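User: What would this chain look like folded?
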Amino acid sequence: MVYKLDLLRSPGVTNRDDLNASFVYRFHLSGNFVLEGSEEFVLLMNTLIGGGMKKVVFDLAELKYIDSTGIGAFIGVAKQVRAKGGDLVFFEVSPPLVEIFQLVKLNDLIPFLRAEKQILDHFFPLKG
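Assistant: Here's the prediction, encoded as structure tokens.
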């Protein structure tokens, strides 16, 4: 699996007390998410979550295949991020992966988003 990280900044004021709260960490995943390589992914996620990462987007537009190890890794990351007061979402999930995720009910745990605007709306809702 290959991944690339982008940081999306909050459209509002930066939270100086918790700088991580001002950013969304967007991971673009491509290739196959299988046993080989999953340890590296889990180590990276544990390090970033330990460092304060709270808002996570997994962009899966180019992810071709996932096995049970990859699904388990996503579940673990979701639990860890939420235990720290954060959240995560999937973005641009391909139809074959949607089928797999629905079969194992991963869509009940992690929301699927399809539009860029939904990412910022999800993590930085307007206060009114």
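The chain has four helices and five strands. If you want, I can go into more detail on any region.
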